[in-house]
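Is this the right way to post structure tokens for a design question? Let me know if I should format differently. Anyway, here goes:
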């Protein structure tokens, strides 16, 4: 989830990372997840295991790449989004779970995106860790929603483009080092990410019209593919 390379800032601040604050926040969220799972009828242990597995990765990133002593509300909000993704992952193929609950949790997880960045800037807690934490949470949310739509026969295989294009790009980078270079900030990339998740949530909405499902999924998939193609071309042209 969190990786380092020659272009990643190294933590320069001495002292212990805010693992205590992370533990308190994670414990509170785990308790909330348990209640939510019991109310929704999703498997508690599966959901908590997913949340715990991601926490291990978060701790590693916090220890090695986080330059601040305070965890901050910004990272707590992103952690809450991770907990929501864990809930959705636990319910990914369970058709007995209310579609309205799944839709509502996904909508809240999406609505909180961006708030963590605003709070990080206001509190002076901006970091490469926080940016990567937020980005990977977005990617995981997209993947889980796409799987949910596919496994419940709400969409066709084209939905996997919306959910897994990011991971395909990462895998391609393992074979092509040029794709592992740092990309500049891009409004186009951020906008299409919003379109991507918005499309997935629209497709989850129980009252969405059937006639719009295919055009929305295919249109969003084509837009996302174009965006990744632009980045791939940019990286390959600048490869040594």
């Amino acid at each position: 989830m969190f990786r380092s390379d020659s272009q990643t800032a190294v933590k320069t601040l001495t002292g212990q990372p805010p693992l205590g604050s992370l533990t308190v926040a994670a414990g509170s969220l785990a308790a909330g997840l348990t209640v939510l799972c019991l109310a929704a009828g999703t498997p508690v242990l599966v959901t908590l295991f997913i949340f715990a597995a991601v926490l291990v990765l978060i701790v590693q990133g916090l220890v090695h790449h986080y330059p601040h002593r305070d965890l901050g509300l910004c990272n707590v909000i992103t952690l809450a989004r991770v907990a929501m993704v864990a809930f959705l992952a636990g319910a990914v193929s369970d058709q007995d779970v209310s579609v309205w609950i799944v839709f509502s949790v996904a909508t809240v997880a999406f609505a909180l995106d961006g708030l963590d960045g605003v709070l990080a800037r206001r509190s002076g807690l901006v970091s490469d860790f926080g940016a990567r934490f937020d980005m990977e949470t977005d990617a995981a949310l997209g993947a889980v929603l796409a799987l949910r739509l596919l496994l419940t026969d709400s969409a066709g295989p084209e939905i996997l483009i919306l959910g897994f294009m990011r991971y395909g790009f990462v895998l391609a980078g393992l074979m092509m080092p040029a794709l592992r270079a740092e990309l500049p900030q891009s409004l186009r990339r951020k906008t299409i990410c919003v379109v991507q998740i918005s499309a997935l949530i629209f497709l989850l909405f129980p009252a969405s019209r059937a006639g719009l499902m295919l055009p929305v999924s295919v249109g969003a998939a084509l837009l996302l593919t174009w965006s990744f193609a632009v980045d791939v071309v940019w990286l390959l042209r600048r490869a040594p």
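Format looks fine. Someone answered above. Worth noting: The CA atoms of residues 54 and 165 lie 20 Å apart. Confidence is low (pLDDT under 50) at residues 2-14.
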